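Name: Helix-turn-helix transcriptional regulator
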Amino acid sequence: MGIDLEALFETVGPMIGGIATGDEEAGRNFCSLMRALVTFDYAVIFAYREKERPIDLYSTFTPEEHVVFVSLYQAGPFLLDPFYHAAREPKPGVWRMRELAPDRFFSSEYFRSYYTQTGLAEEIGFFIALEEGITIVLSLMRREGSGVFSGAEFALLKKAEPMVAGLVHHAWPDLGRRFDAALAKSTKGRRKSAHPAADRVWRNLNLTEREASIIELVLQGHSSESIGLRLGISTGTVKVHRRNVYRKLGISSQTQLLSIYLKNLE
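Structure predicted for Helix-turn-helix transcriptional regulator:
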């Protein structure tokens, strides 16, 4: 008779919550649990709330890797990350990056300019929704040399979700205060804006709301067809708006568009 892993994880989940007492210990416990199920090269845990800078709760990166995977990511590229957008919906569950990525993500400038620096073959995330609009994403990553997670491994990770959710709810019950503190620190000494940095970019560049919506989706990796479906407009209208934006900004490529976007986030 086989073991009912799903039932086992649902039982164990609430019990393991008391183990973790802080970011580091909770992160180590998560990694230990995952290593009992699958192999992976890296793990990272981020907390997301609205359009605020994500909080880095735990990672297994070296200092050099941390620069690319965390510091550079938090500086702005997170706003174009499929995991970030899934966290904001929220979209709880266990997801492969490729399941969440827009149709042109893997040919987008964001992917070419930032994501390829990570050298990853695949990333899988546990998306655990908390109160106050916060979602914690616990990611397992494999380098190109390690290959992707198999179907059987992915199915096993999906069954482990209740156990991971139990750990998260007990280890990080009050992240709202940490986000509030980080937000207060970021606005200290200057007038607080009513608009998040991501929204101020388009206001500063004098783009209309429609133009901003389209260009954000372009940068995220959506095709004109995908953008049209999401916004309820024709593909031709999307292309006209895109040309107008390029003309306004005096650019001719997505590379230049991404550069302007990231510079104006600072």
